[in-house]
Amino acid sequence: GADPILRRAARSVRPAQPNPVPPAEAAPPGAESGGAAGEITMYYQPQIAIATGEVVGVEALLRWRHPRRGMVDPEELIRVAEQSAVMRLLTRRVVDDVVEQLAKWSATGLGLRAAVNVSVRDLHTGEIADQIADRLTRYGVAPDRLQLEITEGALMADPRRVLTTITRLHRIGVGIALDDFGTGYSSLQHLRRLPLSEVKVDRSFVLGMAEDSDDAAIVRSTIELAKALGLRVVAEGVEDERTWRMLHAAGCDAAQGWFYARPMPAEELVAWLARYRPLRPIGGPDEAD
Ligand code: C2E
Ligand code: MG
Ligand code: MG
Ligand code: MG
C-alpha cells in the first residue's frame, strides 16, 4: 500500500517541470513499490578529502519518485513538507534509514560517516535528539559516524531552542555542520556560538568560482575563516577539475560534487567505492592566483 507520509505530501507537491534531477540519478524502472504515492529513498553522495582523494563520508539526500510525476525536486518536497507535520515524519524516516544503513555498512567493514540534513522545525523540540540517541544505541553505531547538516535559516527561526537541541547532540558526539554557508544571516555569530564541527560552502559560490573572481574570493575567505576557527570545511557543487584544483590550493579539506560522483542509491555506492581510485591534484596547485 501507499506510504501515508507520501500520500499527504503528494497532495501538495507540484510536478517538477522540467525534471530537475539528472537522468544519471534516476532509479531503475520498476523500482517503485507500486503504492500510489511512489517511494522515498535515500541517495548518498561521496565526500572526498581533497589532498588525498580518500572518501571521508557521504551526504544522505532524500529522493521521492512519484509514480506519475517522476523524480520530485527535493527542495520543493522539503519546502512543502516543512509547512506541515509531514516534515517531522520525513525526518524520522531519514534518521532511521541512515542509522540503519550505517550499521549495515559497518557490518561489511565499511567505516563510512554519513551526514543527514535536518529542517527548521526538527530542531525546535528535543524529539530529534532523543530519536538519534535511541537509534545509535539500538543499532550500535558510534555517534561520530553521524553528522547533522543545519542551515542558517533553521537557526534564525528560534536560536535558543535550536541551540539547546544541537548542544545535546554535540555532547553525545554527533557532528554538526553548518550547511549552505554564506546564504543565510548572521553567519559569523553562528560560527562563534554554535558547537560546530564543519562548515559547508554553498554550491552557489563553488559552481561559479572557476569563472568568477568574486565567487572565488568568497570561497577562499570562507575556507580561511573556517580553518582559523578550527572547523573542517567542505565545498559542495564541485563539477570540474579546475574547481577541484582551486579548492586544493585554497586549503579546503573536502569536497563533494558531480566531478567525483552524483548522489546514488546505497547499493550503487558500494559498487562505486569498489571501483573508485583516489584522484590527487598532480603536480600541486596550479590555480592559486
Ligand atoms: P544541500 O543539503 O545543500 O545538498 C546539496 C545539494 O547539491 C544536493 O541537491 C545535491 O544533489 C546537489 N549537488 C551535489 N553535487 C552537485 C554538483 O556538482 N552540482 C550541482 N549543481 N549540484 C550538486 P538535492 O539532492 O537536490 O537536495 C537539495 C536540498 O534539499 C539539499 O541541499 C537539502 O537542503 C534538501 N534536502 C535533501 N535531502 C534532505 C533531507 O533528507 N532532509 C532535509 N531536511 N532536507 C533535505
Ligand atoms: Mg546538506
Ligand atoms: Mg548545502
Ligand atoms: Mg541547499
UniProtKB/TrEMBL annotation:
Residues 17-26 have a biased composition (Pro residues). Residues 24-277 form the EAL domain. Residues 12-34 are annotated as: Disordered. This is Diguanylate cyclase (GGDEF) domain-containing protein. It comes from Micromonospora phaseoli. The lineage of its organism: Bacteria, Bacillati, Actinomycetota, Actinomycetes, Micromonosporales. The chain holds residues 499 to 787 of 794 of the full protein.
